[in-house]
Specification:
The chain has 15 helices and no strands. By secondary structure, the chain is mainly α.
Length: 353
């Protein structure tokens, strides 16, 4: 299975995040326009009434335009994904028949877990009907983790759940309904991905994408000690690059695991200390970038600074604090535009572009 088949999940998350950002900005602009009315027009005057009557319809038109565009984008990817999955079922070549015939005699023989893993490692994830054959072998031999893609029926059920929740979000988000926070969260999206791919069978994710999913799963553990021990085990067995990605995600979310005493007793304190040292450099870089934003003489100039430094979480935090403190809508618009660009670039990477 190619990584491009996760495109639908990245698109759903991007569409929901983008709509939330655009809705929140439109709502804030609506509020500012009402405040401006009272400052600039005499309440009750014809001009006041004329301007007032424009605000809500223009807000609704802006929101509806954003919703329609994102709904269309999601539905196009959804239909393409469903068509691709259905097409995979119809691929029955001569080599498929030959392989199935060669493996047929295994159905009457006991197959060990090591033998099964060797077979699926070589032939799994390549052809739909071979994967269904391996599922039968696994079932007959009591092997719980099949290591191959789920059936078409199982995949379509996941896609329908994703589509339903994405459409509900786009149609119903109003900045206040808290249940939408759950259905648009990475944890929820990753749980659907996991079901859709049967534990990401046959998919190669980059370190950053893999780290996101590992941390999300660890955060679903029981108490804080169990979560810290799970994270420590992940760090102990990860490569240095993967360690950095895991710790960056934890630091950005403000999770307490980085300061949990359990880290000192699980053999990874040196990894955490090294990360903090590197993180200090990022803080200095963020401060320097903010000085560039403050001294920029034009929008293109500070937009370039925002784009170049957007991957630095400390810079993003400082930018968000500045926007909140100054109520600078031009800077906020620039920041949100860069966020969308970065999300689109990440979505392109998920498609294998």
């Amino acid at each position: 299975m190619k990584k491009e088949q996760l495109e639908i999940f990245a698109t759903a998350k991007l569409c929901m995040d983008t709509f939330k950002n655009r809705y929140d900005m439109a709502k804030a602009k609506k509020g500012e326009r009402f405040k401006s009315l009272k400052r600039n027009f005499v309440p009750g005057s014809p001009m006041f009434a004329a301007e007032r009557d424009k605000v809500t319809p223009e807000f609704e038109a802006e929101v509806e335009g954003a919703r329609d565009g994102l709904m269309k984008e999601f539905e196009e990817v959804f239909m393409r994904t469903v068509a691709r999955e259905k097409a995979a079922v119809t691929v029955v070549t001569g080599s498929t028949k030959e392989m199935l015939a060669a493996l047929q005699y295994l159905e009457g023989m006991p197959v060990s877990l090591d033998e099964y893993n060797a077979l699926t490692g070589c032939f799994g994830g390549k052809l739909y009907w071979l994967d269904r054959f391996f599922e039968r072998i696994a079932d007959k031999n009591g092997i719980a983790k099949t290591g191959v893609q789920p059936s078409l029926t199982a995949k379509l059920a996941v896609l329908e759940e994703l589509a339903e929740n994405t459409k509900q979000f786009l149609n119903g988000y109003d900045g206040e309904k808290k249940n939408f926070i759950v259905t648009s969260s990475e944890k929820y999206i990753f749980s659907l991905e996991d079901k859709y791919t049967n534990g990401y069978s046959g998919i190669c994710l980059n370190d950053k994408e893999q780290a996101k999913r590992m941390v999300s799963k660890a955060m679903g553990k029981g108490d804080s000690l169990e979560r810290s021990c799970t994270l420590a085990n992940m760090l102990r067995t990860a490569t240095p690059d993967m360690q950095n990605e895991i710790l960056s995600i934890l630091a950005e979310s403000g999770h307490t695991s980085l300061t949990d005493p359990a880290m000192r007793f699980t053999g990874v304190q040196n990894v955490v200390d090294r990360f903090r040292k590197e993180d200090a450099k990022l803080i200095k870089a963020a401060d320097a970038a903010m000085e560039q934003v403050d001294s920029a003489k034009s929008r293109p100039e500070y937009a370039g600074v925002v784009y170049d430094n957007f991957d630095n979480r400390h810079f993003r935090k400082k930018m968000e604090e500045k926007i909140a403190a100054t109520n600078d809508w031009e800077l906020k618009g620039c920041y949100e535009n860069v966020r969308e660009m970065k999300q689109n670039e990440a979505g392109g990477a998920n498609k294998g572009e």
